[in-house]
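#lab-general

N.A. 3:47 PM
ok so I finally got the sequence cleaned up, no stray characters, all 106 residues accounted for. can someone with queue access submit it? mine expired

B.Y. 3:52 PM
send it over

N.A. 3:53 PM
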Amino acid sequence: MLELFEEPPSLIESATAYAFPYQNIKQILLRLGNKGFATLENNKCDKGLAWLLRQNAGNRKEETNKENVTNFINSMFAPFSSQQIDRLINSLLTLYGNLGGISNEK
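B.Y. 4:20 PM
back already:
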């Protein structure tokens, strides 16, 4: 959800965006901070606000996840030829099309 903000949001802005109480957001962020995913800093302009900053730990985890998913998919389909994969895709598309007809019959 941080992508919705051009600047790192304050705790209050985060609480509003997530529709959670301020204190719940603060507790979540403190836990994320302990794991290296976020940090809270005082806003230089307004001492009452703290800013949520995304750290590289989240990016590293995201990259690791992408690699794991890619490796899993590659391993899963490794024994199949391209022709077998094409037949599988066509079969799944046919099945999917049939499901639409079945649900419309009711």
